[in-house]
């Protein structure tokens, strides 16, 4: 091979599983940096497209299963939300069917921004809740929504690597659907608000209907009262075992 012939080695890694936005792109050349820049830009563009598709698929799953509008108003997901029950090694993936035994102990969670610019705002705090919009049943939601968990001041993903953290405002209550009521949707909702309001967050007055005394009341009203924005969600199905 002639010495004057340019040789390029391009390395690109996209970690889709844990952090879809993580991209490493580099190039080696003895003559120019223009092509490497272009290649990195192309990789960055393709990653943004992938992230956009992830957000769209989350939104579509929430819509197709009635979580939008039963639990949440329509929104554009800004974070991916990964939830895992470590005691049973069960990971929740947008509509999985699991047993109540798999969800008996409190889960751990991670959340990562879809956009590189998201999560960079100062003085922001996050909350995570778990709610059941199908209590007593989806056909007869007389206890809906039922609050199963509220975590305030969840760790900022930029400083914690997205790992679990925060203060439990309402202790985790595992799913326990009544016999004969079919599948229940259990919805994790990630919320964002001003850090100055963290100390003002209050647990619902009671778990049933989140203390509002009306069917289908819960996360939407609680978030509005505390000035919180819905930025991510995940969910699973479970029925009486």
UniProtKB/TrEMBL annotation:
GO molecular function: peptidase inhibitor activity; phospholipid binding
InterPro entries linked to this entry: PEBP, PEBP-like_sf, PEBP_euk
PANTHER family (UniProt xref): CARBOXYPEPTIDASE Y INHIBITOR (PTHR11362:SF148), PHOSPHATIDYLETHANOLAMINE-BINDING PROTEIN (PTHR11362)
Lineage: Eukaryota, Fungi, Dikarya, Ascomycota, Pezizomycotina
Domain of life: Eukaryota
Any one of the GO BP annotations: regulation of Ras protein signal transduction
Record's protein name: D1
Region: Disordered, residue numbers: 154-180
């Amino acid at each position: 091979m002639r010495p004057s012939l340019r040789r390029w080695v391009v390395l690109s890694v996209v970690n889709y599983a844990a952090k879809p936005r993580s991209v490493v792109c580099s190039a080696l050349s003895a003559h120019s940096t223009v092509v490497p820049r272009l290649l990195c830009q192309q990789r960055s563009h393709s990653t943004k497209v992938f992230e956009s598709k992830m957000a769209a698929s989350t939104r579509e799953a929430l819509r197709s299963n009635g979580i939008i509008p039963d639990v949440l108003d329509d929104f554009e997901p800004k974070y991916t939300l990964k939830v895992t029950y470590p005691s049973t090694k069960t990971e929740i993936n947008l509509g999985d069917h699991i047993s109540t035994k798999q969800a008996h102990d409190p889960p751990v969670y991670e959340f990562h921004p879809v956009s590189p610019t998201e999560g960079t705002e100062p003085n922001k705090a996050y909350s995570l809740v778990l709610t059941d919009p199908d209590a007593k049943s989806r056909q007869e939601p007389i206890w809906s929504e039922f609050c199963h968990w509220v975590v305030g001041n969840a760790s900022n993903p930029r400083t914690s690597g997205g790992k679990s953290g925060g203060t439990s405002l309402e202790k985790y209550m595992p799913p326990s659907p009544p016999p004969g009521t079919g599948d229940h949707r259990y919805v994790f909702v990630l919320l964002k608000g001003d850090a100055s309001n963290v100390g003002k967050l209050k647990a619902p007055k009671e778990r049933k209907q989140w203390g509002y005394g009306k069917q289908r009341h819960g996360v939407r009203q609680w978030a509005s009262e505390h000035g919180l924005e819905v930025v991510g969600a995940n969910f699973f199905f479970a029925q009486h075992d």
